[in-house]
Amino acid sequence: MISDLPLVPLLAVFAVAAAAVVLASIRATRLADIIADRTQIGEALAGGLILGGATSLAGVVVSVNAALSGDASFAFSNAVGGIAAQTLFLAIADLLHKKANLEHAAAEPANLFQAVMLIILLSLPICAMAGPDIGFVGVHPVSILLFLAYLAGVRASSTVSEQPMWRPVKTDATREDEPEDDDEKGRSARGPALRFAGLVAIMGVGGWVISQVGATFIDRFSLSSSLVGALITAVVTSLPELVTTLVAVRRGALQLAVGGIIGGNTFDTLFLVASDIAYRDGSIYHAVDITDLYWLGTGLMMTAVLLAGLILRQRKGPARIGIESVLLIAIYATALVVEVTR
One matching Pfam family, short form (predicted)? Predict the structure, then answer.
């Protein structure tokens, strides 16, 4: 078993699983863009629904496995820690996009709406944690509400993408959401979709291995579940989002890059729903501690800052990036210091 491996082989297994997840995600980015062009659903929506959900699969496997083993803090912190880490990745991508502030160039109503949707979804677990400890068959009512709110938000995002009631002001730095190759229009998306599904399976298996190694770290080295969940497994399983974001920015698919992060984060809130179902000792929201709530608040704050940046659309800021990217880095760095010094 993985838990019985010596340290060096254990780290090697961890590295191989992480590499498999990352490499699969690189190919998935290209396929998601092709699917977006052939189905004409738009880069922002494809990034949020197709790419965001696929690259989040490894993370949900980690959280569900942790919940099944009875470690609520590990499951919860992996979910909310991943949201914070993935939002940070947009600031990193902003550093690499030299032409203009990334949030300025990737103007898209669907991304704005998904950011608002994410804030709403992140607020629900806070209400559950502060409310009464109730449940039906071990599932808190907020988990059901969270799932329904996600479905409603996805449907509304599609409407915003297809029939926007307003559009951002175009500037010379605005990147239009246009297919890279007109030949893609009208072609079947079946082939790319099947290959995409195969890559998703690889990411899922990689997530399972990472969850087993993370649990071993907690037991063998007496590390806190919050530390391992928020800063080790969450970051590692979020690496696909970093890779896909950087690849998308390099290819000029800026809406796909921003939409992939925000959409992936909205999907990540469903980790909590799956974890609450898998956790059999009551409501998972009342089994976690203040450390996990801190990471949830960090993710909520970073999302609000990102939304403000998308609305402000600052062309240039300090250090050649937008002020929202500077704030995102500062917020995450503060959370990191608080976690390791706790």
Answer: Na_Ca_ex
